[in-house]
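Hello Y.,

Per our agreement to keep a running log of every chain we model this quarter, I'm adding this entry. I've kept the format consistent with earlier entries: sequence first, then predicted structure.
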Amino acid sequence: LQPLAHRKYSSQSLRSEAELPEGVGQTVAAGQHGYIQMHYLNPTEEDLEVHVTVNATTFAPGESYVPAAAFVTYNTKISIPGGVGAAASAEGRCDVPAGATFFALSTHAHKRSVRTTVHDGDASVLDSTDWEHPDIIAWDAPGYRFTGQLVYRCDYENDRDDAVHSGPSAETDEMCMAIGYFYPADKPVFCINDRVIAF
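Predicted structure for the entry above:
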């Protein structure tokens, strides 16, 4: 788990676009490395030919903008008992920077997830039942401001005899994440379980 990577964009869709609010942008520092991380699970015996195209626009040199960044949560405490049909949940509560305005929010989990939710304290913000194509909220101006903690939760149902825990494998592990984008931001926010990690 490497929380210090500065995530700029996330998608789980075949075609996806992220339009930032007018006058808002993400900073890419001089000399900053970039990478694209793709996950594919090929259930067939045949090779897959895949590709990704990234198009981006920039502000003119010297043009002012409001900086935005990612708000990423990750739960390391997922523990689904062994046995087909066994159920479990994972949840985290994360402090949101004062004055943060969100313009996009979604979730990420693997195939045992039957529901992912994000709450603003007790109020529902996002509720999705499709782990493979989770709901994506893209707010129009003026965006969304959390009044309490960002509470993310994933509910699971096991499809195998073995227990399932947090981990990177889409085949054998699970994840529970909320991923959002907000401004103004001087740095990204990464929250593990209930604790915001300093960058």
